[in-house]
Design goal:
Layout (H helix, E strand, L loop, with lengths): L1 H36 L3 E10 L4 E12 L3 E3 L1 H10 L3 H18 L4 E5 L11 H11 L7 E5 L1 H4 L3 H13 L3 E7 L5 H7 L4 E4 L1 H5 L4 H16 L3 E4 L5 H9 L4 E3 L9 H15 L1
Parallel strand pairs: 2-4, 4-5, 5-6, 6-7, 7-8, 8-9
Antiparallel strand pairs: 1-2, 1-9, 2-3
The chain binds ligand C2E and magnesium ion (3 copies).
Keywords: Membrane, Transmembrane, Transmembrane helix
Protein name: EAL domain-containing protein
Length: 277
Amino acid sequence: AAKAGGKNCSRFFSQEMDALLQRRDRLETDLKLALATGEGLNVHFQPQLAADGKVVGAEALFRWTHSEFGDIAAVEAIAIAEECRFIDILAERVLRDAARFARSWPSLSVAVNMSPAQFTGSRDLAAELGRIVSEEGVSPSQIELEITERLLVTDEDDCEKQIASLRNLGFRVALDDFGTGYSSLNYLRRFKVDRLKLDRTFALNAEINESVAIVRAAVGLAHSLGLDVIAEGIETKLQERVAFEAGCDAVQGNFYAAPMTATAFAAFLDSQDSAAA
Ligand code: C2E
Ligand code: MG
Ligand code: MG
Ligand code: MG
């Protein structure tokens, strides 16, 4: 019986695999096309707030609605673009949208996620990104580039140089998803960045007493190295309290607002202003 089951299982598995691979091929072709036409593509913005409740920034997040499959998760689309080597085209699109958003909100800093794949090959990434934002009429200082440990473990020497040139040009650099990797603390000493983004697992543990101590320690270390700290994935009042009690400088999460279109963001800012007035 076990044998027969195994056989069925593997046939089922291979049909599933076929379906997955077919979907994958289809998404690859269609994403490439979408990047050429812009159809179904969007960039959403999620507000970042300081302890006084003021909106101080936004994170730009790639969005793709497929004509047949509907919304595709950002991580899936990004992974396809990375593997199929059109991540640079996707990244330029997001950066241009983010820069235009930044131009309409000069008081906000706008964060853009970077893929490790953008750092590969001998290229002057800083010059390329600098040219794009200046074409859109904004200063790099208004743009924060989010990198992850996934990048830092690749080719450390080269990364260190590229991060340094990005910062020399005026871009701010943030370490995203902090706390999910292994040797985070070492990276903090080695790679100079401007901001630490505490992963949402910190927020999720807010109910646990010790977690305040852990967040406080992480924030203390970051501050002693001259870094700002933002907590992401805040969903409840309690998580917000823990973040600010631990000394975080800013927060981001669905408790305040989910990522939204640039137009909806304008309305959100309006409603914040009228709430404050
Ligand atoms: P990330 O950079 O850590 O972005 C934060 C993710 O958490 C976003 O998911 C956001 O929608 C989600 N989020 C925000 N607030 C909450 C909350 O309160 N609770 C929960 N559960 N989630 C929240 P999203 O948009 O699906 O993006 C997933 C990941 O895909 C991002 O994680 C980032 O690594 C990548 N990504 C998104 N856009 C881009 C892009 O333009 N370029 C690159 N290279 N990567 C991107
Ligand atoms: Mg991010
Ligand atoms: Mg993150
Ligand atoms: Mg991430």
